[in-house]
């Protein structure tokens, strides 16, 4: 059962770590899950995210997101769909997937449903403490967002995820891939590499702590590469509920200056 537990840790940790799957300008945080009772599991979680940054503009752009996500694990296959309700205030143009494009000096407020993100992943091998495990995954951003909340273009991400349990308490994980962004209006967005890495520590059956770093190659000509750090904590409440809290610190002008959020999940 330790191999199954490690596999589930990995799948949930990668979903947390990878920035391209985010519904706002902060990575979506979902800490590793407890061992399921069968090979088919599901999870529904909702939450709130907050981030603020200037992105080389004259003033800050604030993004508040309330995403709802549904995830199903079918043995080696994971399917996921997510959509946020967004509030954006500032000169930046929200392009989805953690991308904020610097705007002019005219700060505006807008809100509404954001883009739908659809993901699928396949676990290539089930490893353990003696060998890492690998997973391939893809994400499609469907342009369902309203004006000022998206590019109205499809985005695509392909990635390879890898993890290695060090012990029953410690898991290290990493992800690397490539993201294709659709241009919009007069803005040309650059395709590029994405990557993440982190560590999860399971204090006991109820509490896990973790830390991750997220990277995205420069997506706009006036911005550097995206780099952010995210600590998190998760509490399991009973057998079906879990709460996750996270923080975010951006290290470049392409990243939010700071942010954070909460998730409430129901699983079975």
Separation, N- and C-terminal Cα atoms: 18 Å
Could you tell me the number of beta strands? 15
Low-confidence stretches: 1-38
Rg over CA atoms:
18 Å
Beta-strand residue percentage: over 45%
**Helix and strand string, N-terminal first?**
HEEEEEEEEEEEEEEE
What is the CATH class? Mainly Beta
Overall 3D shape: globular
Write the CATH architecture name. Beta Barrel
Task: Describe what you observe in this structure.
The chain has 268 residues and is mostly beta strands. The chain has a single domain (2-267), classed as monomeric porin ompg (Porin), CATH 2.40.160.40. Helices cover 6% and strands 56% of the residues. The chain has one helix and 15 strands; from the N terminus they run αβββββββββββββββ. It has one helix at 2-17, and strands at residues 40-53, 61-74, 77-90, 93-96, 99-101, 108-113, 116-125, 133-142, 155-165, 170-180, 192-202, 207-216, 226-237, 241-250, 258-267. The strands form two sheets. The chain has a twelve-stranded antiparallel β-barrel. The chain has a two-stranded antiparallel sheet with strand order 4-5. A hairpin with a 3-residue loop joins strand 13 (226-237) and strand 14 (241-250). The radius of gyration is 18 Å and the shape is globular. It starts with a helix and ends with a strand. The relative contact order is 0.20. Mean pLDDT is 82; it is low at 1-38.
Furnish the topology, listing elements before pairings:
Elements: H1 2-17, E1 40-53, E2 61-74, E3 77-90, E4 93-96, E5 99-101, E6 108-113, E7 116-125, E8 133-142, E9 155-165, E10 170-180, E11 192-202, E12 207-216, E13 226-237, E14 241-250, E15 258-267
